[in-house]
Amino acid sequence: MILVIRQGTPETELNKIKKKMVELGCSINESIGTNYHVLGLVGDTSAIDPNLLKANVYVERLIRVQEPYKKANRLFHPEDTIVSVDGREIGGKGLAIMAGPCSVESEEQIIEIAREIKKAGANFLRGGAFKPRTSPYSFQGLMYEGLDLLKLAKQETGLPIVSELMAANHIERFIEDVDVIQIGARNMQNFDLLKEVGRTNKPILLKRGLSATIEELLMSAEYIMAEGNEQVILCERGIRTFETYTRNTLDISAVPAIKKLSHLPVIIDPSHAAGMWWMVESLSRAAIAVGADGLMIEVHSDPSNAKSDGAQSLKPDNFASMMETLKELANAVGRTI
Ligand code: PEP
Ligand code: MN
């Protein structure tokens, strides 16, 4: 339930309303913008008598929230959320461009790629240290050594690090070493992991599950936010459909849908959607045109020898030329890179 509070309501009256709601067993999510002031009620609202609230002159309107997600709901927070990472913003006018290899493979590899993507205009370095592979016989990542190498690349370039957390027992190291904790598609509904990252104060990049609906994605964001961490960035990375030509089907419509339903920033990962490097530029253009707040792109200096996802990785020079096009396109839609 949402209480829209009248502009200019005295503090004492506001506090009375809040106190009453807490007494009735709800917790309050307050959001104040230039033209609105709302109290979002989370919890069991059945004890609340709507007629008594309607009788209160300081309550302008009462809205019943139909959706099961509350804190992630735009009704609770009408303005776009902007997540700040190391002086950079995700969800504002500037686009977040996260680029880097699927897996961190060596010091030389990650530093070279980090330098190249920075030169081309990327503002975050992505790289997997713990890899969720379909086969247990495939490369599983350099693990903690991978995190150390990412830190070296950050020292070299200043780019903040985005890396995937797979298990709750690694969380302390991720809090120390990583700027944005990625929750991968395969763990989107690992609810215990979501609760764990919800108890940190790190920005979380939450990828859409392989076959998850938009509502399920928003419910996973809600798990994180319900624990107190509201710095969530959503990522559309393609979903399973009957189509087999592409690795996944990029659900472009997820962006306007999520923007309507939620205030959280949403980025697109065209690399995992397409599975083919030559399609990444077209899908990136579509992502910017449709209103995404950023991109996650896999880049590798030697894709044919990459330890994972080489087929979908752009070479640094292709990434750089794509970025030139994307900068123009971003300007055309009122965004910047
Ligand atoms: C990745 O980013 O390398 C990755 C494994 O992505 P996803 O979880 O979207 O498959
Ligand atoms: Mn990958």
Question: What's a concise summary of this model?
Answer:
The chain has 337 residues and is an alpha/beta fold. The protein is built from eleven helices and 14 strands. The chain has helices spanning 11-23, 50-55, 107-120, 144-157, 171-177, 191-198, 214-226, 254-261, 270-274, 280-290, 316-332, and strands spanning 2-5, 27-32, 37-42, 59-63, 83-85, 88-90, 96-100, 124-126, 161-164, 180-183, 204-207, 232-236, 266-268, 294-298.
Descriptive notes:
It is a single chain. With 337 residues, the chain is α/β, with parallel strands linked by helices. Helices cover 34% and strands 18% of the residues. An eight-stranded parallel sheet has the order 13-12-11-10-9-8-7-14. It starts with a strand and ends in a 5-residue tail after the last helix. The chain binds phosphoenolpyruvate and manganese (II) ion. Manganese (II) ion binds at residues 102, 272, 298, 308-309.
